[in-house]
Design goal:
Chains A, B, C, D: InterPro entries: 4-hydroxybenzoyl-CoA_TE, HotDog_dom_sf. Chains A, B, C, D: Pfam families: 4HBT_2. The structure is a homotetramer of 144-residue chains. With 144 residues, the first copy, chain A, is α+β, with helices and mostly antiparallel strands. The first copy, chain A, is built from four helices and eight strands; from the N terminus they run E-H-H-E-E-E-E-E-E-E-H-H. The first copy, chain A, has a single domain, classed as Roll (Thiol Ester Dehydrase, Chain A), CATH 3.10.129. In chain A, the strands form two sheets. A five-stranded antiparallel beta sheet of chain A has the order 1-4-5-6-3. A three-stranded antiparallel beta sheet of chain A has the order 2-7-8, with no helix packed on it. Chain A is elongated, with a radius of gyration of 17 Å. Chains A and B meet through helix 1 and strand 3 of A and helix 1 and strand 3 of B.
C-alpha cells in the first residue's frame, strides 16, 4: 500500500467565482500541487532535477476523473489526501480526496504515464522504476 | 441532437508550465468558458440573469472526466467543440473536444445537475425545463 | 503604526511559466490573499459578512505599484509581510513585501478606497471608519 | 513612435470573483498576454525561439504600475491597446490600456529590462538591439 500524504489549502477570495464558491479548475490546480508534493514527501527529487538526468523521467497526465460532492468557499481550510492507488505497468493512478474536516468536497483519480525522453527528444512510456515505487510505499508495508 | 458550438482559445505564455506546455487545469478553465458560451450561443441568458429569477436555475458540475491526448503550447490557436451529449432527467452531460486543427488535444465529459433555489436557500435538482432543452437542439433535427 | 502580518506561500510547479519562474500575475494574486488575510488577522469580518451589512463596506483597489527584485521558483516557501502604510481620508495604502528568507523578491504598494453601497446600488467612497483603523493599529502603539 | 497593437479579451465567468467583477490579477495576466502578442505582431520571434539563440534575449519585468478606473464583468469584450512608450538604454516601458468600447477600465505601465544570458548562466542587461527597436517602430514614422 502506498503512503498517504496531506497537503493543506487555505481557500482565497480570488479562488472563488461570482457564485461565491471555489471555481472548480482550482481543485485541479490543488490536486496537481498535491501530486508534486506527494513525491517530494516520499523523498523523490523535484521535477527540475529530473529534467537534468540523461534520460529524464516525467509523469504526464493521461486522464483524470473528478467528482464534486459539495462546494467550498474562501476563508476555509481544506486538506488534500493523496496516495497511489495502483501501479499498472507503465502507468500509475493517484487518488486525491479534498476534505473540509470530515466533509468530502471532491475527489479525483489521475492516471499518469511514466516517461523517459528518447535521443530524438520524443517521450516514451516506461515501466515504473523500482526506486520510485519503493519510495512511495508506506513504511508499515515495507517493514518485514 | 444538440447544437455544437465552437469556442476559440489563443494559448498564452502564462498558460504554460515549466515543461513549456499548457498547465492542465487551464483546459478545465477553457471547458468551463466553452460551457457558459454554449448556452449563450443557444440564446439562453447569462448566469447573472438566471440568478435574479424567483427560482433561479444554476447548473452545478457533478462530475468531469478528461482525457489528454497530446500537449499544446503558447502561440497556438485551439478550438473547443461543445455539445450536449445526453439529457437524463435532472442532469445533462456536456462534451468538450479541444482541437488544434485536426489534432485532438483533450476531451472532457462534464455532468451537470440543473437546480433551483428553494425558499430555504438550498439547491434542489429539477428536471431540465423544456425551454432549455429546446434552445439547445439543432435546427436540423427540430425541422420535421 | 499599523500591525504587520505574515502570510505564507508555497510556490507550486503550476505557478511557474516556461522560464521556470513564478508567472508574475501570481504575485498579485498572493498580495490580494495577504490583503484579505491582513484584515482577518486584525479581527475584522470577512468580505462575505461585510456584504450583508445595510451599507456594506468594500475596499476596491484603485492603484498598485509593484517592483520585482529577483525571481522565485517552485519548491520555495515565501512569506508576504503586509501592513497599512498610510490612512489618507477615504483611501488607505497597503504595502506587501514578498520575501524568501532575507531576500526581497518583490514589493507592492496598493491604494484602496473604502466604499459603502448607496441606496441606488452605486459605490461611494467614505472616510475610513474609526473601528477599522483601530483594529489595524499595533498593540504597542495603542498601549499608552 | 512605436506601433500600437490591439489584443482582444472575452471576459469569462471564471475570471470574476465573488463581487461579480474581474479579479484584478487577471488584468496583469491579460497585459502580459498583450505584451507577448505585441512583439509577435511586430514580427519578432516568440520567446521559445529567443531561448535557443546562443545569447538568448529575454525581457524580464522590473516594475509595473497599474491604475484601475472601473470594473468589468463576464460576457464583456475588452481590448488591450499596447505600445512602447519609451526606450531608455537597457530598459523599455510598455503601456497597456484596457478598454470596453470607449471606457478605460485600467491602464498599466510596465518597465522591462532586455537581457542576454552570460556564459555562467546569469542574466545581464544589455542595450536594446536596433533590430528590436526597428521592428516596433510604426511604418508612418519610419517612412521618410
Amino acid at each position: 500500500m502506498s503512503k498517504e500524504t496531506v497537503y493543506r489549502i487555505d481557500v482565497q477570495f480570488g479562488d472563488c467565482d461570482p457564485a461565491g464558491i471555489v471555481f472548480f479548475p482550482n481543485f485541479s490546480r490543488w490536486m496537481d500541487a498535491a501530486s508534486h508534493d506527494y513525491f517530494i514527501q516520499c523523498g523523490l527529487p523535484p521535477w527540475r532535477e529530473m529534467q537534468t538526468l540523461p534520460h529524464c523521467i516525467g509523469a504526464p497526465l493521461l486522464e483524470v476523473h473528478t467528482r464534486f460532492h459539495t462546494s467550498a468557499t474562501y476563508g476555509e481550510s481544506l486538506v488534500v489526501h493523496t496516495r497511489v492507488e495502483e501501479w499498472r505497468g507503465k502507468v500509475f493512478i493517484q487518488s486525491h480526496r479534498i476534505m473540509r474536516n470530515d466533509t468530502l468536497i471532491c475527489e479525483g483519480r489521475a492516471t499518469h504515464a511514466l516517461c523517459v525522453k528518447q535521443d530524438d527528444g520524443r517521450l516514451k512510456a516506461v515501466p515504473v522504476p523500482e526506486f520510485v515505487r519503493a519510495a512511495c510505499e508506506s513504511v508499515e508495508n515495507v517493514a518485514y
